[in-house]
Write a structure and sequence with these properties.
The chain is mostly beta strands. It has one domain: Sandwich (Jelly Rolls), CATH 2.60.120. It is 8% helix and 33% strand. The protein is built from two helices and ten strands; from the N terminus they run αββββαββββββ. Strands 1, 2, 4, 7, 9 and 10 form a six-stranded antiparallel β-sheet that branches. It has a four-stranded antiparallel β-sheet with strand order 3-8-5-6, with no helix packed on it. Strand 5 and strand 6 form a beta hairpin. The mean pLDDT is 88.
Length: 145
């Protein structure tokens, strides 16, 4: 991630030290099946997250077995959802602060398990930012690379 940011900033992948703000702990998601419950389309700005964050999603169960994956809006406020096709051992990355996402019901007999977390990058992430009317404070671990 650092190399990509450095390259896009014109630093050839070898820029100076960058500070990353990582949600700590990550959020554990467990969705037993069969169950009609789902996570409705939402963006994380509704829950107090700022635009300076990227979402990371890591499935711990095979999405082919549960047939339950994360769906993410391609373009903000367009409703053009596509499945985040992430397999075991892979990580999905998306801009969940402004792009809506959801998880459909798990209709299988398997339990879906995943974690998700957010990472802010210095220069885009404001450590003093908070959404008016929210009390939630998401703890962060600071890592310098």
């Amino acid at each position: 991630m650092k190399r990509k940011i450095d390259a896009e900033a014109g630093e050839g992948g070898e820029g100076g030290e960058r500070t990353f703000y990582i949600q700590d702990p990550p959020t554990l998601r467990i969705q037993p099946g069969p169950c009609a419950r789902s996570v409705t389309p939402h963006n994380d700005a509704q829950y107090g997250h700022q635009p300076g964050e990227l979402n990371f999603w890591v499935p711990f169960t095979d999405v082919q077995e549960t047939r339950t994956t994360l769906w993410v809006e391609e373009n903000e406020e367009k409703g053009d959802f596509t499945s985040l096709d992430v397999n075991l051992g892979e990580v999905g990355v998306f801009f969940g602060t402004l792009h809506k996402h959801f998880v459909p019901a798990n209709v299988t007999n398997k339990t879906r398990v995943s974690i998700d977390f957010r990472i802010g990058v210095e220069g885009w992430f404001d450590t003093s930012w908070s959404m008016k009317g929210t009390k939630d404070k998401h703890e962060r671990r600071i890592i310098k690379l």
